[in-house]
Amino acid sequence: MGMRTAAAALVLDPADANALALYVASDLSRGNRLPTGSTDPIFGDNRYSAEFFATAAGPTLGEAVLCLAIDRRDTTLVLDAIRALAGTGGRGITARAGRAPIIECLQYPDRRVQIESALAIVASDPQQSFSGDFRIVPVLASSVRDSGQKFATVVAESAEDRNATAAMLSSLGYTPMTGGDSFAACEAEIGRESGLDLLVVQGSADFIASNMNAVRASRLASAVPVLAVTDAANAPAATRAAEADRGTVVWIAGSGDETFKNAIDGVMLAQAGGEIGAEEGLEYAVRSLEALKTIGLRGRGIFNVLDAEPALLATLASRSGGLRLLVADILATMPTPESQQKLVSVALTGGADDEDTVELLVRAAASARSHGRLVTDDQVAQLRDFIAKSSGSVADAAGRLYGALDLPSDEVVKLIGTK
Question: What pTM value is reported for the model?
Answer without folding.
Answer: 0.78
